[in-house]
Amino acid sequence: LHSFPTRRSSDLTIDFNVSDHLQVQRVQAGALDLGGNLVTAADFLSLKNDSRWSKNLTSAPDIAVNYLAFNLTKAPFKGNLKLRQAINMAIDKRFLLRLLNGRGIAMNGILPPTMPGADAHFSAYAYDPGKATALLKAAGYQPGQLSIPLTYQQSGDFDKVAQEIQSELGSIGIKVTLKPVSSSTWYGGVAYNAGKEGAMVLAPWGQDYPDPSDFFDPILTCGSGSNAAFYCNHAVDALANAARGTTNRAKRYALYRQMEKLVMADAPWAPLYDGVLYDFHASRLQHFYIPPVWPFDYASYAVAG
């Protein structure tokens, strides 16, 4: 979430403008009803394992994808499918989720597993560091020859995720240089800007509405405004156009599954995981829940007393 000033609804206090950990501390001290940011790995286990606070954790599945996007407009990824495939096969997503306390589901495709029409068994690239190393050599690089910057917004768990990606790609001989930026910088000019993104970015995408079109039309079609990889495949666009004009639900879902196969064959991304959302709130906060589409519904919350 972006940073906003503290806001009050009646006497409900929600704070957005301090760090994730400080928000947790303020809730524990009785100075805050709800943190504006989600609970991260830094605080999750201590809250979950403490009977005083575990009841104040609320969770819900996200419908989103966190992924590595490869900038297809520049080296080293432009025209180098084998390199993109190598990175897909070099990342152990299950181990990555262990670092995040299991708060998510590993993703091997575009559609989150909770999205209507998603193929829960779809898998384009299995974790295989041996094959990844072979693909790196086939892409024209010996271990130790390639260095890639990784740009990401420094919020939530992204520092931990970026560091693990750096480690895992390092194990096959790719040096990754971490380039964290603030969320305001990320959304203010870096994200979806081919000249500013750099070669590789760690990017999130959450649903705007519960339909698979939201995971293709705005982020994976030619010229789409939130296309972090600057990917363009006219066959994918043709299927997207067909899906928009199809009212039969089963046929629409089949088209999106076909699109998912085409996109992952081109490997403009390395999908990572769909998270599980956790929020921490004061005991006096009533009616708190995490809605299925957007993570907050402030108008529904109330405080006791």
Low-confidence stretches: 1-9
Mean pLDDT: 91
- The class by helix and strand makeup works out as alpha/beta
Query: In total, how many beta strands?
Result: 12
State the helicity in percent bands: 25-40%
Number of helices: 9
Strand content: 15-25%
User: What's the order of the H and E elements?
Assistant: EEHEHEEHHEHEHEHEHHEEE
Rg calc: 20 Å
Kindly, what is the distance between the CA atoms of the first and last residues, rounded to a whole number of angstroms?
29 Å
Shape: globular
Biggest sheet layout = 7 strands, mixed
SSE arrangement:
Blueprint: E1 7-9, E2 12-15, H1 20-28, E3 34-35, H2 41-48, E4 57-61, E5 64-70, H3 81-90, H4 93-99, E6 104-106, H5 129-138, E7 146-153, H6 158-170, E8 174-181, H7 183-190, E9 200-206, H8 234-244, H9 249-266, E10 269-280, E11 285-286, E12 302-303
Parallel strand pairs: 2-3, 7-8, 7-9
Antiparallel strand pairs: 1-2, 4-10, 5-9, 5-10, 6-10, 11-12
Task: Write structural notes for this entry.
It is a single chain. With 305 residues, this protein is an alpha/beta fold. The protein has nine helices and twelve strands. Strands 4, 5, 6, 7, 8, 9 and 10 form a seven-stranded mixed sheet that branches. The protein has a three-stranded mixed sheet with strand order 1-2-3, with helices on one face. Strand 2, helix 1 (20-28) and strand 3 form a beta-alpha-beta unit. It is globular, with a radius of gyration of 20 Å. The two termini are 29 Å apart.
Short précis:
This protein is an alpha/beta fold. The chain has 9 helices and 12 strands.
